[in-house]
Design a protein that fits this description.
The protein is an alpha/beta fold and 323 residues long. Helices cover 45% and strands 8% of the residues. It has 15 helices and six strands. The longest helix has 20 residues.
Length: 323
């Protein structure tokens, strides 16, 4: 069969996501750019890619504590199976899903992974751009190494949500919510389980915390309310890549002004967003009163927490209906 005939045959098959595999066969080449579609191999390639930046891979790929929760989650997911139903007309099929009244091409979102500037020079701008082009919603972390405004621009007309590490003070919280809304972030994802820095052995072994060198605090440094506390204007900066913590420590001890400023603002932003100040369910009212879009609670893992969460959301729904 000629190549043209192969392409015609491929086009006649179901399009969308399933066409990816067909395209690989037609190309007569391994999957690009990684050469594999096996998850474990992709993960290993990422580990290899970051080997010259000690601490970077495990910062995103590692787990807290003993790793027991991650292992339990994997075992739990393994219990789920796809059970096919035979002789069902699935010629025209779709992975589309509707969330908060918006139809998406698949039930896949790009998760809010912070401090992406330690992985690549393009940091959060790269996945935001790709998400926009592919129609995959992008969720921006408060721990981003690029400002909200830059990420929104890179994401273009894509769907985007904002993940909030809940600040200690209401004035900064309100400023972040305002900026998120103005920059087209349509849903607010509130992290409930990180009011303070977690116990992460792989980071503790290296004293690895990019925030304290000013990396991953760019949402804060670009915030007018936060920066006004220190008599400074907001800045939209891009931390240098690669991030070298030992070199930063050396520059700090040598009195380098730029490094000392990064350490200062890193410590101040940590005090604001990972202060150890814990919230309760009543505090959610403040967010609902000041955010007019969908609100997602991140970190609910069991019935003990899901019941009060459901009660808060149900009360919120009743109030909206009555209004």
């Amino acid at each position: 069969m000629a190549t043209l005939d192969l392409e015609t045959a491929a086009a006649s098959l179901s399009g969308g996501w399933s066409s990816y595999g067909t395209g690989i066969y037609i190309s007569r080449q391994p999957p690009k750019p990684l050469g594999t579609v096996v998850f474990e191999e992709i993960e290993q390639k990422a580990r290899e890619k970051l080997k010259d930046y000690p601490g970077a891979f495990l910062y995103a790929g590692g787990s807290a504590g003993t790793g027991a929760t991650e292992r339990a989650n994997r075992k739990g997911l393994d219990r789920f199976a796809i059970v096919p139903r035979m002789l069902v007309n699935a010629t025209q099929r779709s992975l589309e899903t509707t969330i908060f009244g918006v139809t998406h091409s698949s039930p896949v979102f790009i998760a809010p992974i912070g401090v992406q500037g330690i992985f690549h020079g393009d940091a959060e701008l790269a996945p935001a751009s790709v998400g926009g082009k592919l129609g995959i919603p992008f969720i921006l972390s408060t721990a981003s190494s690029r400002s909200m405004e830059e990420v929104a621009k890179a994401n273009g007309n894509g769907h985007r949500w904002y993940q909030l590490y809940w600040p200690r003070t209401n004035d900064v919280t309100l400023s972040l919510l305002k900026r998120a809304k103005e920059n087209g972030f349509t849903a607010l994802v509130v992290t409930l389980d990180t009011m303070t820095i977690g116990w992460r052995p792989h980071d503790l072994e290296r004293a690895y915390i990019p925030f304290l060198h000013g990396v991953g605090i760019q949402v804060g440094k670009s915030d007018p309310v936060f920066m006004a506390r220190y008599g400074r204007e907001p800045v939209h900066e891009r931390p240098e890549f690669p991030y070298d913590p030992k070199a930063k420590d050396g520059l700090f001890l040598a009195g380098d002004a730029k490094t000392k400023e990064g350490v200062f603002f890193g410590a101040e932003w940590l005090k604001e967003c990972n202060s150890g100040f814990y919230r309760d369910w009543e505090d959610l009212k403040f967010l609902r009163e000041n955010w007019d879009g969908p609100l997602v609670l991140k970190g609910i893992q069991n019935v003990i927490n899901s019941k009060p969460a459901a009660a808060c959301l149900a009360l919120d729904y009743e109030q909206e209906v009555s209004a």
